[in-house]
Amino acid sequence: MIQNLLDGVLTGAIVSLGAIGLTMAMHMLRFANFSYAELMAIGAYVALVFDRLFEALIPAARAAIGPLSLNWALAAALVVAMAATGLSAVAIDRLVFRRIRQRAGPLSMVFASFGVALILRNLITLIFGLKAQLYSQEIAFAVILSRDPLILIKPDQVFVLAAALALMLIFHLVLTRTTFGFALRAVAENPALAQVAGVRLSAMVAAVWMIGGALSAAAGVFYALTNHLAPTMGHNFLLPVFAATIVGGIGSVHGAVLGGFIVGIASGLALQIMPSGYVPAMPFLIILAVLLLRPHGLFGEEQA
Questions:
Q1: Which phi and psi (to 5°) does residue 141 adopt?
Q2: 116/121 Cα distance (integer angstroms)
Q3: Which among 59, 105, 257, 261 is placed 20 to 30 Å from 237, CA to CA?
Q4: Which of 35-44, 75-84, 288-297 is the least confident region?
């Protein structure tokens, strides 16, 4: 049970990173973007491309960082992937969602997001194939923390959890301690009033996509580092990310983080009471429970 709890915490950290950008986009743009989780796959594969590129150009970058399977090439590729995925998210908004916002309503944007998700997923499949891939072929040995009960943990998992928490903390500080963060929150709460105060709405919308794309890319790389890459990884994370957003309350960054850990831990502990094939349904059950008991989420505001 303790092992499942630890695995659930790690999954929760990854889900939380993806849910932060989704809850911000849903609150500001007022639509459910079902293509959002595909940004995780984009980030993971962009990191794969640049990891191989940096290893070929700089042989010394192949050296592992301490006990991790992560090497310097992948660390640099992670930064590039976050920037590239953020820019990709902005480009998708400019090419698709902004045009629909100007001509139609939120429901049309929801339908469009399904189409964007299919296009992105099939593009990744077309370029990289269906076969699962790994960043490193090196075998990462787990460290035995306890033998009774048996508790195993890999150095990569510790790094992923620490890095995810660090990114969440940095974003929290930006959101609560900077002028940019105040402007972002103002636009999310009342776009018209924020514009009257001199805040550029278009710049804030682009910033939300950029931040959300970067965090999703980090989540995708972290998942692939501890598991593997596959074109369907974004699709597999769609329900958990939405569940975390709904649990925390749409628009609440802190709620998205807490919701991500709740979904991850619940899915991990579910292995104790149900076959593994049924575990993917756990986020769906959590969504149903929240909608029945507290429709606006833990930290969301009840709409009049």
A1: -85, 140
A2: 9
A3: 105
A4: 288-297
Q: Which of 261, 260, 280 is nearest to 270 (CA)?
A: 280
- C-alpha span between 33 and 292 (Å, rounded): 22
User: Does pLDDT of 303 surpass 60?
Assistant: no
CA 258, 80, 223, 7 torsion-angle sign: negative
Average pLDDT, stretch 264-269? 87
Structure tokens at 217: 């890319």
| Residue 280 CB neighbour total at 10 angstroms | 13
- Are 215 and 20 spatial neighbours (Cβ–Cβ below 8 Å)? yes
Q: What are φ and ψ of residue 213, in 5° steps?
A: -65, -40
Q: Which structure tokens are listed for 230?
A: 């596959």
pLDDT band at 304 (very low <50, low <70, confident <90, very high): very low
CATH of domain 2-293: 1.10.3470
More confident residue, 261 or 151: 261
184 close to 206: Cβ distance less than 8 angstroms:
no
Q: How far apart are CA 250 and CA 301, in angstroms?
A: 8
Q: Taking 80 as the threshold, does the pLDDT of residue 42 lie above it?
A: yes
Mean pLDDT (the chain) is 87
Helix ranges (DSSP H) in the chain: 2-29, 38-57, 72-92, 98-103, 106-128, 155-177, 179-189, 191-196, 201-226, 233-248, 253-270, 282-293
Distance between CA atoms of residues 27 and 112, nearest Å: 18
Q: What CA–CA distance (Å, rounded) separates 63 from 18?
A: 29
Structure tokens at 17: 């990173």
Least confident of 35-49, 70-84, 110-124, 196-210: 196-210
29: closest CA among 87, 91, 115, 105? 105
For the chain, domain boundaries? 2-293
